[in-house]
Amino acid sequence: MSIQPVQAFEPPYVMAVFSNVRTPDESGYPETNARMNELVAENPGFLGYESARTPGGLGITVAYFRDHESLGVWREDMEHQAAMKQGRAHWYESYTLHVATVERSHGFARND
């Protein structure tokens, strides 16, 4: 399987950029993260996500949604709310969330 960015979608759509620095506490994080990935994929307006972590520990996840309503459904999901509470209590030293409407989008893929 090759690594690919999330495809370009027809704008407008919404992106949520979650930048974070984690604590050393890993207890329950991998399982919760896997569950959140399953859960968000059930949202009909969810388009995909990209995530990376620098060697220094900065993590960035960009999630794409068809509209603000779809993102709102995700934000208000009760399991997601519980995971966010756990994150603030145990897994994150700090984080920032940026939400924006994408006005332009295009992509490129080399055909080898």
From TrEMBL:
<dbReference type="InterPro" id="IPR011008">
    <property type="entry name" value="Dimeric_a/b-barrel"/>
</dbReference>
<dbReference type="InterPro" id="IPR052936">
    <property type="entry name" value="Jasmonate_Hydroxylase-like"/>
</dbReference>
<protein>
    <submittedName>
        <fullName>Uncharacterized protein</fullName>
    </submittedName>
</protein>
